[in-house]
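Practice problem 4.
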């Protein structure tokens, strides 16, 4: 069982109190060892309702929390995360499996969102419009939308909640937070920090864990929750749209991706290969911005494939707690099976294995999958259509700019894309043609607190980060004054 000063109980947190431990619990595993590291309380539907009620009682509409108070909450969380980054990283590594240094880096990334919102919260001040319209003076107020449900996935156990919670607190919205059942411990640790090190009042932040269907139903059905912010699969996102339609809830959705990574022959191929490695294998390939389809211009394919294979063969796979590990385990059996299925399917349909083991040679006794590169990928292969969410690099070749933009867009998703070329005009044309919310040019970097990030098409609705993200939980209200 995991031991940590930040994990003194394994229960929910409602109205400023930890909930009692229950007989109904679920297990949390370390994916690197298969060990059970905690048993966590599964909350009932009634407790989720209590969390919403606690949120309602913390919501201040007629006497809003002053901007300075909200700024202080954000700074307190930022400082607590920064001070405890090593411990957060250790817990995160134990339940997710990503390398320890990467896990600690995620704690810093999370702190960055609280810092950004604290620095930019002034954008939420009410202001008077310069124009006198309809013979009135107009002021615009930015009201908190109300109690919000924040539902997060397992792939960034601290990063994803930071994006949502920072903006919700900046807006003055109480929240009911549901982490993924694979990674609730990092969230419990965050709540310990908020409980111990911040002045956030009871009811502003509530933690519920357990069966997604039970918790999701209460959040969707409650008229007291006007908005849900969800990061996860497109399938569940679609379900939430259906389940909230009757009440016309606001939804912020960050869903699946199927990122194209496009390498033109004029690009710096070493830089492209280095960036692809950093992008593709972050979190073991389990991020929605990981390159999922690599398009390489014909004449560069042989050279690029070789550079990539050399780098992939140097990568180390193992327990993220150990020194020098680049890639940890997959999160669970289903995740591992999907990677093997994608490699096998690609090879069956004519792809060539450029690096990595033959899929049939793997015993599957653990959750480690060696990084693999497959060339000759075509649109009929599963790895082209679906997000692999694992350490597979599938490569296809292309000839022209128009052809590769069409191929990149040949997916229902539109989250992240990358283009490598030395030609600035071409980069601008290709970026404009790609229907993706984030297009890296000569970089494989992902989102940052300073910039709005989100998906087009089936990749979602809304943006997190940047000033746009700061406004996600806001209802603008106008007051024209007629006297
Ligand atoms: P992933 O494939 O990354 O596990 P999911 O979409 O299955 O993504 O899960 C993302 C988050 O959504 C998790 O916290 C999960 O428990 C939660 N979730 C899954 N189904 C529902 C649902 N019907 N209502 C609300 N939350 C759900």
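Answer key:
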């Amino acid at each position: 069982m995991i031991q940590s000063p930040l994990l003194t109980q394994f229960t929910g947190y409602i109205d400023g109190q930890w909930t009692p431990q229950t007989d109904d619990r679920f297990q949390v595993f370390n994916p690197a060892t298969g060990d059970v590291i905690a048993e966590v309380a599964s909350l009932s539907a009634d407790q989720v309702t209590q969390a919403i009620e606690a949120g309602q009682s913390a919501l201040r509409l007629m006497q809003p929390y002053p901007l300075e108070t909200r700024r202080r909450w954000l700074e307190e969380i930022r400082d607590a995360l920064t001070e405890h980054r090593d411990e957060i990283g250790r817990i995160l590594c134990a339940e997710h499996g990503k390398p320890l240094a990467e896990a600690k880096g995620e704690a810093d990334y999370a702190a960055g969102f609280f810092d950004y919102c604290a620095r930019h919260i002034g954008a939420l001040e009410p202001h008077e419009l310069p124009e006198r319209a309809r013979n009135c003076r107009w002021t615009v107020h930015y009201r908190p939308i109300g109690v919000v449900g924040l539902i997060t996935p397992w792939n960034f156990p601290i990063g994803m909640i930071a994006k949502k919670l920072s903006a919700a607190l900046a807006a003055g919205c109480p929240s009911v937070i549901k982490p993924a059942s694979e990674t609730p411990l990092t969230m419990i640790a965050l709540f310990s920090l908020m409980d111990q090190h911040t002045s956030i009042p009871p009811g502003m932040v509530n933690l519920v864990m357990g069966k997604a269907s039970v918790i999701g139903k209460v959040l969707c059905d409650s008229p007291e929750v006007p908005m849900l912010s969800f990061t996860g699969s497109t399938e569940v996102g679609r379900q939430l749209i259906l389940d909230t339609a009757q009440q016309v809830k606001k939804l912020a959705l960050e869903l699946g991706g199927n990122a194209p990574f496009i390498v033109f022959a004029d690009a710096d191929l070493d830089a492209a290969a280095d960036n692809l490695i950093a992008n593709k294998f972050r979190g073991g390939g389990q991020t929605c911005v990981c390159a999922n389809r690599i398009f390489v211009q014909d004449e560069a394919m042989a050279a690029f494939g070789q550079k990539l294979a050399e780098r992939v063969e140097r990568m180390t796979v193992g327990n993220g707690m150990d020194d020098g590990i680049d890639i940890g385990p997959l999160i669970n059996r289903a995740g591992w099976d999907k990677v093997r299925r994608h490699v096998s399917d690609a090879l069956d349909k004519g792809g060539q294995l450029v690096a990595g083991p033959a899929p049939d040679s793997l015993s599957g006794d653990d959750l480690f999958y060696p990084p693999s590169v497959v060339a000759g990928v075509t649109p009929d292969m599963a790895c082209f259509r679906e997000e692999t969410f694992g350490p597979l690099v599938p490569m296809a070749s292309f000839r022209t700019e128009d052809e590769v933009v069409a191929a990149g867009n040949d997916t229902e998703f539109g989250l992240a894309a990358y283009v490598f070329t030395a030609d600035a005009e071409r980069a601008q044309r290709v970026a404009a043609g790609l229907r993706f919310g984030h297009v890296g040019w000569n970089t494989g970097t992902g989102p940052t607190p300073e910039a709005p990030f989100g998906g087009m098409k089936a990749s979602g609705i809304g943006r997190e980060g940047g000033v746009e993200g700061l406004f996600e939980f806001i209802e603008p209200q106008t007051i024209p004054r007629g006297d």
